[in-house]
Specification:
Number of helices: 9
Number of domains: 1
Low-confidence stretches: 5-21
Mean pLDDT: 85
Largest sheet: none
Distance between the termini: 48 Å
Number of strands: 0
Helix content: 55-70%
Order of helices and strands: HHHHHHHHH
Structural class: mainly alpha
Length: about 160
């Protein structure tokens, strides 16, 4: 019996398109590997991550607080304390991932990406992607829809 080749090809994710940051970079995180992202969200993302995301996306604080399901007063307290809690951090990270995927889909066009995120999407039952992504399951479906659109599949 022949012995199988022992070499195993390692999966290496493709680099981010030139000029486009990965998820962690959008939030100002230095390390973007999964353990570092888990640690950062568990500890709570800093307010600087929130500010960087707002600048990158053009959303205002009220829009982001609404997406994160944080009352305005709580959002103001988060600004004062300098960090989000774990649940809010996970939601922000999910939104940053979807933002980056949308930017890739729309060739870096921030305006088109923002408009697509807040407009009803046929492939999501006419719910806006930003609203659909309020849960992890919804976020997965938004990422899948982006993939289908990028591949030219009618959605």
């Amino acid at each position: 019996m022949a012995v199988a080749n022992k070499s195993v090809a390692a999966f290496v994710p493709p680099p981010a398109p030139k000029g486009r940051p990965r998820i962690g970079a959008t939030l100002g995180l230095k390390s973007m590997d999964v353990p570092a992202l888990i640690k950062a969200t568990s500890a709570g993302l800093s307010w600087n991550s929130v500010k960087r995301f707002l600048v990158a996306t053009g959303f205002n604080q009220q829009q982001l607080a609404n997406y994160l399901d944080i009352p305005e007063r709580t959002f103001a307290r988060r600004r004062e304390t300098g960090a989000l809690d774990q649940r809010e951090s996970e939601k922000l990270l999910r939104l940053a991932e979807i933002w980056d995927a949308g930017l890739d889909l729309f060739d870096g066009d921030e305006t088109r990406t923002r408009e697509w995120l807040v407009a009803p999407a046929f492939g999501l039952g006419n719910v806006a992607p930003i609203d659909y992504a309020r849960t992890e399951f919804g976020g997965r479906e938004v990422r899948a829809l982006i993939g289908r659109i990028a591949d030219g599949v009618f959605s």
